[in-house]
TrEMBL record:
GO terms for molecular function: lipid binding. Keywords: Lipid-binding. This is Protein DegV. InterPro entries: DegV, DegV_C, DegV_domain_contain. The gene is degV_20. It holds the Pfam family DegV. PROSITE patterns: DEGV (PS51482).
Length: 289
């Protein structure tokens, strides 16, 4: 029997869902934060160039922080006030990378109308899960929460996302690689491949060469390894990636049988970690028949 209440979706700005899709699917977004010195800004409320300018000026990477409990509380209460009959499904930014999940639990204390799920994803990975569930609800708007939980768990288990950071300088400045590793990688032209595995960002492979060639190799390797569903494939980039690289990427995935490509542009939180000119690919591995 269908639940007549319906469901609202909440996610963080760190999901990097394009504004037009947020609007199209009525997704409710709460802000994460970026701090540059003494100035703390809401993710998505300032130009990305500000991050690059700050790093150039200070040689420091801006720090990022989770949505705080009060922000979650305000969002949940607002939605409940406007739509008291509806349930809220919070599809959360990876719990192991930041305090978002724990803060959301604190913010929703005693709210029996809120269900939380850790998407175990950031940026494209979180966005893909959120959009998959939004489209599911568009077709079945009154699905009971138990069904939504099962569908979401299935999506999370099949999501495969990998990316090439745009700048090792940002990884070094942020303390994610040592000076020695940075120097060696820079001299050899090595680009680490980062994958989302059980919510964690893990370096699983290293490519060597310029982004123009390496991006195409990543596409071929990822599609070969992951057998993505044909109906939706995601590509992600951070501001500063050459347009030719982007155009060639779209051509490559279409030649490999993926006509529907959705670009995701990294927002402030993810760009602080990836640096300018990052590139990645993701989607859902096809279910076994």
């Amino acid at each position: 029997m269908e639940d007549s209440k319906g469901t609202l979706i909440v996610a963080e700005t760190g999901s990097d869902i394009p504004a037009e899709l947020v609007s199209a699917y009525n997704i409710n977004i709460v802000p994460m934060h970026v701090a540059m010195g003494n100035e703390t800004l809401d993710d998505g409320k300032f130009p990305i160039q500000k991050i690059y300018d700050y790093y150039k000026r200070t040689k420091r990477v801006p720090t990022t922080s989770a949505t705080n409990p009060e922000e979650y509380k305000n969002m949940f209460e607002k939605l409940h006030r406007l739509f008291p009959e509806k349930q809220i499904l919070h599809l959360c930014y990876s719990a192991v990378t930041t305090a978002t999940y724990q803060n959301s639990l604190i913010g929703s204390e005693d709210m029996d109308y809120v269900t939380h799920m850790d998407t175990k994803g950031v940026s494209l990975a979180q966005a893909a899960v959120v959009l998959k569930i939004a489209r599911f609800l568009e077709k079945k708007p009154f699905s009971p929460m138990e069904e939504l939980i099962a569908v979401t768990q299935n999506c999370i288990s099949r999501l495969k996302f990998s990316f090439l950071p745009g700048s090792l300088e940002y990884l070094r400045a942020g303390g994610r690689v040592s000076n020695a590793a940075y120097l060696g990688a820079s001299i050899l032209g090595i680009k680490p491949l980062i994958e989302i595995i059980d919510g964690k960002l893990i370096c699983t492979k290293k490519y060597r060469g310029k982004i123009q060639r390496v991006s195409l190799q990543l596409i071929e390797d990822a599609i070969c390894s992951n057998n993505y569903e044909k109906d939706e494939l995601y590509l992600v980039y951070s501001e500063g990636l050459d347009k030719e690289v982007m155009d060639n990427a779209v051509t490559a995935v279409k030649k490999l049988g993926y006509p529907n490509v959705q670009w995701i542009k990294t927002g402030g939180v993810i760009t602080c970690h990836s640096g300018p000119g990052a590139f990645g690919i993701g989607g859902f591995s096809a279910e076994q028949s």
